[in-house]
């Protein structure tokens, strides 16, 4: 019934989460997504990158997991389904004590936050860190990870999400509608931008001499600018998260230690997956949006 490779697992999906990645592929936005995702029709007709579930069967060369193991991870596509195939390197054991819904909310968002802050931003204890888009899926994990590693965190969000960002652990929260961040007097060691819409120069003036501005999402034009400027300006960088099993394990350990926890905004039924994607596309979520595939 199912064909999967020797190093893959067949996973019975219990939950999957929604990312901007999903609606961008759905809309082919930006258009160059068609180059890898299919010019005339989708190469991957079933969306959903983040999964949590139970291993149903394994390929001959699989060494780490066995049928019955509860896992989570990011497998690229196909998670808005009852079963999906995933490679060993894209999975880790589900955090102890976490539900399938909570575990599904972790992979892409938390990997982006972890790698953006630590690998690109060189996060250290005692630094002043600004998180833009702090209430979103990536931002909610970024606030917690920065706090866990000892940073002083300023979260930027809309007025309706201020209380949510405070509950995530931010030391200060700024409503971008009422405060022009370009006029802030405070200077930061790291600005992690999950909602890049303003010019890069507005952020550079907020950096300390050795500070770093890292873009994780937002307008495509801003991301391309960061990619270009990063070639000759050490203060500017961008993050496109990659799935590393060691980072999934690191996140698992952070969850188990109480360092981070999933903030789930809404849970949708399998039948309402389209509405879940729409909710994320409209930037209404406070934290993550998760689809329950089965109980």
Task: Walk me through this protein's architecture.
The protein is an alpha/beta fold. It folds into two domains: 8-106 and 262-292, Quinone Oxidoreductase, Chain A, domain 1, CATH 3.90.180.10; 108-238, 3-Layer(aba) Sandwich (Rossmann fold). 29% of the residues lie in helices and 26% in strands. It has ten helices and 13 strands. It has helices spanning 20-27, 33-37, 100-104, 107-120, 137-148, 162-167, 200-204, 220-229, 245-256, 273-281; strands at 8-18, 50-58, 70-74, 83-87, 91-93, 128-132, 152-157, 172-175, 188-193, 207-215, 236-238, 264-269, 288-292. The strands form two sheets. Strands 1, 2, 3, 4, 5, 12 and 13 form a seven-stranded mixed β-sheet that branches. Strands 8-7-6-9-10-11 form a six-stranded parallel β-sheet. Helix 1 (20-27) crosses helix 10 (273-281) and helix 4 crosses helix 5. The two termini are 23 Å apart. The mean pLDDT is 90.
Cα gyration radius (Å): 19 Å
Shape descriptor: globular
* CATH level 1 class label of the largest domain: Alpha Beta
> How much of the residues is beta strand, in percent?
25-35%
Average of the residue pLDDT scores: 90
Q: In the CATH scheme, what's the topology name of the largest domain?
A: Rossmann fold
The DSSP helix count reads 10
Distance between the termini: 23 Å
Q: Which parts are unreliable, with pLDDT below 50 for 5 consecutive residues or more?
A: none
H-E order: EHHEEEEHHEHEHEEHEHEHEHE
**How much helix, percentage-wise, in residues?**
25-40%
Sheet/helix structural class? alpha/beta
Domain Enoyl reductase (ER): 3-291
Pfam family, one: ADH_zinc_N_2
InterPro entries: ADH-like_N, Chloroplast_QOR, ER, GroES-like_sf, NAD(P)-bd_dom_sf
Protein name: NAD(P)-dependent alcohol dehydrogenase
């Amino acid at each position: 019934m199912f064909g999967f490779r020797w190093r893959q697992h067949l996973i019975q999906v219990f939950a999957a989460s929604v990312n901007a990645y999903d609606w961008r592929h759905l809309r082919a936005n930006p258009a160059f997504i068609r180059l890898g995702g299919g010019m005339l029709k989708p190469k991957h007709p079933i969306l959903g990158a983040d999964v949590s579930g139970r291993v149903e069967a394994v390929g001959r060369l699989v060494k780490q997991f066995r049928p019955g193991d509860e896992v989570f991870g990011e497998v690229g596509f196909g998670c808005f389904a009852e079963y999906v195939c995933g490679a060993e390197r894209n999975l880790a054991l589900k955090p102890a004590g976490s539900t399938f819904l909570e575990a599904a909310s972790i992979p892409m968002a938390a990997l982006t936050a972890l790698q953006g802050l630590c690998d690109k931003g060189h996060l250290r204890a005692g630094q002043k860190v600004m998180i833009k888009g702090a209430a979103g899926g990536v931002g909610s994990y970024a606030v917690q990870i920065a706090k866990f590693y000892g940073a002083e965190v300023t979260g930027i969000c809309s007025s309706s999400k201020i209380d949510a960002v405070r509950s995530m652990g931010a030391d200060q929260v700024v409503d971008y509608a009422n405060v022009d961040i370009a006029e802030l007097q405070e200077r930061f060691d790291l600005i992690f931008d999950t909602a890049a819409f303003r010019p890069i120069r507005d952020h550079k003036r907020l950096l300390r001499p050795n500070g770093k501005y890292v873009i994780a999402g937002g307008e495509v034009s801003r991301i391309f600018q960061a990619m270009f400027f990063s070639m000759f300006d050490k203060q500017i960088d961008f993050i496109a998260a990659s799935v590393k099993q060691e980072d999934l394990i690191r996140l698992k350990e952070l969850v188990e230690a109480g360092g981070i926890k999933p903030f789930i905004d809404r849970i949708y039924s399998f039948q309402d997956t389209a509405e879940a994607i729409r909710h994320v596309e409209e930037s209404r979520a406070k934290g993550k949006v998760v689809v329950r595939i089965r109980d």
